[in-house]
């Protein structure tokens, strides 16, 4: 089983909390860490500087497709940022991630 981190951004703390709670309650993620950030990007040909909130999710690659679909269905952005990468870590913690995202 491969463990992954999923990085998403949200437009507000309320939206980030809603997404985190929903994804953890559906067992698509074991944990959601939420942090305010300042983002600079181009959108519709314009330079934008905006306050956003990043959500860092711990999950498994097996849960990624359903997690991604759920984020897209709940997110306020037209094109939400959803990035993932493989991780390694402390075995007991990764087992906890696996246990919490297992399908029951």
What does this structure look like?
By secondary structure, the protein is an alpha+beta fold. The mean pLDDT is 96. The chain has three helices and four strands. The protein is elongated, with a radius of gyration of 14 Å.
List the helices and strands and how they pair.
Layout: E1 3-10, H1 13-25, E2 31-43, E3 46-60, H2 64-74, E4 82-87, H3 91-100
Antiparallel strand pairs: 1-3, 1-4, 2-3
**Distance from first to last alpha carbon:** 17 Å
Based on helices, strands and strand pairing, what is the structural class? alpha+beta
* Contiguous helical run count: 3
Strand content: 35-45%
Percent helix: 25-40%
Major sheet summary line: 4 strands, antiparallel
List the strand order in the largest sheet: 2-3-1-4
- Tell me the series of helices and strands, N- to C-terminal: EHEEHEH
Global morphology: elongated
Radius of gyration, Cα only, in angstroms? 14 Å
* Unreliable residue stretches: none
Mean pLDDT: 96
Find the count of extended strands (DSSP E, 2+ residues): 4
């Amino acid at each position: 089983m491969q463990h992954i981190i999923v990085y998403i951004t949200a437009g507000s703390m309320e939206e980030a909390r809603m997404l985190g709670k929903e994804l953890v309650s559906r067992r698509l993620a074991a944990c959601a860490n939420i942090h305010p950030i300042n983002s600079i990007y181009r959108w519709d040909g314009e330079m934008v500087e905006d306050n956003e909130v990043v959500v860092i999710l711990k999950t498994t690659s097996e849960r990624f497709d359903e997690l991604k679909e759920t984020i897209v269905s709940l997110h306020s952005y037209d094109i939400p940022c959803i990035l993932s990468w493989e991780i390694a870590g402390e075995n007991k913690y990764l087992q906890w991630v696996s246990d919490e995202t297992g399908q029951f």
